[in-house]
Amino acid sequence: MLADRGRLQSKDDLQPWTAARCHRLLRQLQCRLGTLRKLVHEARQQQPATRNTTKRASSHEERTRPPKRTRYTYAQRRSASSHPTITNPSFTTPPRKVRTLGTMNLGHCSPASERVDFSTPMLRRVCLQPGASSCSPKRDNTAGSMSSPLVAELHSLRRLAPEGHYRIYEAIFGWLSGLLRSTETRTPTPHPKSLLGMCLRKVPTALAEIETWDRKVAEENGTKSVWDSSNASVELYGQLETFGAAGMGWKPLRLVVRAHALSILVEAVSEGLFEPEFVRLLAELYLSFKCAPDAATIVSSLPSQLAGPKSSRSTLDETSKLKPLTVIVKSLQGTSRPGASFDCLSNFIKSGKLPLAWAYTKGFRGVWTATLEALATSRPEPSAIGFICTLMERLLAHKGMDESSKDSTKKQALVSVAAGLTATAVTLGNGPGVDISSSRRSAARRMMHVLDRCISHLQRERTAPSDGGLFVLVMARYIAMAESKYVDPAVRRQAEEEFRQLVADDDDVSSQTQYRQALFLASSIARYRGRACSIACHDILSEICKRLLEPAPSSRAGDGRRA
User: 165: buried, middle or exposed (CB in 10 Å: 19+, 13-18, 0-12)?
Assistant: First the structure.
């Protein structure tokens, strides 16, 4: 079925984009979703009844069925308590005094492989990045090349979904693939950021508001009927068609149809009509046609809150409900790094659908790496700056952790991210040459802007005693600005003064915490800079300690760092 539609694309391109064609395409999707909505509603009503009948049948059979004998197939057999084993201490091996790898609980040790970490290849790319390219990226004409692997994954849904649901899934997937292929814009007009394109993509939102108003007026006037519906869609599509030549349609209508289909699918996803695996396939299909904003919109409309991680080694492939989010995370691993993916993750964090505990896990490490690399590029993405600022601000304000292991993992994540930003800023600001390019200076300022923004947010919102997050960020900002030639001297002195006040005003108890945090931050910065520049880490650490001793050489924290 999909192959036949692919062979007919040349004929579809010759058809004019008229209002009648747009309504014919959208009616197919609406009818299939109406049937699916009915099936899902019936399944939800029958589910409690089936569960209750199963319980009654099992309780009725238990009275006539003999009790089952307990088996110890996979567990150890219980030893007889009447014959205790008497062991002679002289013939037993004494316990080991040194812990071995087999006896260590790796989930509570927080090794470097589980916490937030930045790899050497990424840091080398940041250090040796070229200048801003003058040419725009070439357009890939292989859109939709991933359709055949996605169709194979679609067939695997037959085992998970009922037969009726699967047939509708297959029809919707084929219909959407054909729509994206026929509405694909091979010419740069209208531009995605043009005023015409933005207005046409807002047409479905305007239609929804007009139809809602018409229904409200009909209910108030008492003229509502089952057979009467709003004609706003027909009228508006007809008005848009008049912009083109008579009888030839209007080509920009394909943008309206694609946006209208996206709004219909978003409504279906928000109602929970689709399985999470099918939502992932829809997002993958949009990405295969280079429609990252549409894929992010589909994933962002998931109705329920996602499950939290089980441990620090958890990945996003643990449960089926997290599968749509893996599409967004994988899209950040490429060279393009669409800003819509960062916006999608920001919306998940702001709305609370994604638990903040995922930020400390192994599955989220790639997101941190992609964000830092996006900030260091010559053509930055504003969405990446907003995402990392939002995530760090939420992490600093997150107080919902009772276990000490999780709290230490959170602090390690904050220190690692602050160290990565600082090491990147120092590396880009102190290049091998005398004259540093403007792109490297801008990237270094971008890193310090993130630190400064998080510090300002924490100082503005702090109502309780800090757990050390403010000290880590202030220290990281001071190290980043200490040896920068492009930073204004007044700004550098202000950062130095704030760092001196935090070190001097703390008592003896917090000084121990500051010592540990400063040691961890300094060693992390030295490690990341050593990876990026191929310099011995102990030399970098000596420079950092020398710089830290300048503001307060007589303080206890300075003596601890000197040791």
Answer: buried
Q: How many Å apart are CA 106 and CA 126, to the nearest integer?
A: 32
Pick out the chain residues at pLDDT < 70: 1-13, 48-115, 129-147, 185-192, 223-230, 398-408, 431-436, 462-468, 504-510, 550-563
What is the pLDDT at residue 68?
A: 62
Sign of CA dihedral 332, 337, 340, 345: positive
pLDDT at 117: 80
Compute the radius of gyration of the chain from its Cα atoms: 30
Q: Phi and psi of 549, rounded to 5°?
A: -75, -15
Q: Which tokens sit at 252?
A: 């920009």
Distance, CA of 198 to CA of 191 (rounded, Å):
9
222: left (phi over 0), alpha (psi -120 to 50) or beta: left
Q: Please count the other Cβ atoms lying within 10 Å of the Cβ belonging to residue 195.
A: 9
Q: What is the model's pLDDT at position 181?
A: 92
Tell me if 284 sits within 8 A of 332, measured CB to CB.
no
3-state secondary structure of 16: coil
Two tokens, residue 457? 């947010």
Hey, what are 532's tokens? 């990026």
Class of residue 326 by CB neighbours under 10 A (exposed 0-12, middle 13-18, buried 19+): middle
Burial of 457 (0-12, 13-18, 19+ CB in 10 A): middle
Structure tokens at 495: 């950062």
- Angle (CA) 349-298-249 rounded to 5° is 140
H-state helical runs in 432-507? 438-461, 469-482, 489-504
What does pTM read for this prediction? 0.78
> Could you tell me which residues are beta bridge partners of residue 249?
245
